[in-house]
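Slides due. Your pick:
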Amino acid sequence: MKSSGKVLDNTVNIIMLTENEIIRNDRKPNVLILPTRFSPYEKFATCKICRQKVHQAGSHYCQACAYKKGICAMCGKKLLDTKNYKQSSA
């Protein structure tokens, strides 16, 4: 049997991934978690603005710079218009 993403039984919500691997929909299998899992030995990225080490895997900006600019730390999308705010990072 080959990989298929079809639901075999709606009452039990079991998905057949391969012939030996059956998972339930209510649990996250380790196969899907491992690529995005935190690794303490990998090098952290640096912030694109201040060149400080970023302490969140997959982020491009540190939390201080993201807060000051009003952007998302992971993707850089503008979340808040900070033009009329008096923000401090302290």
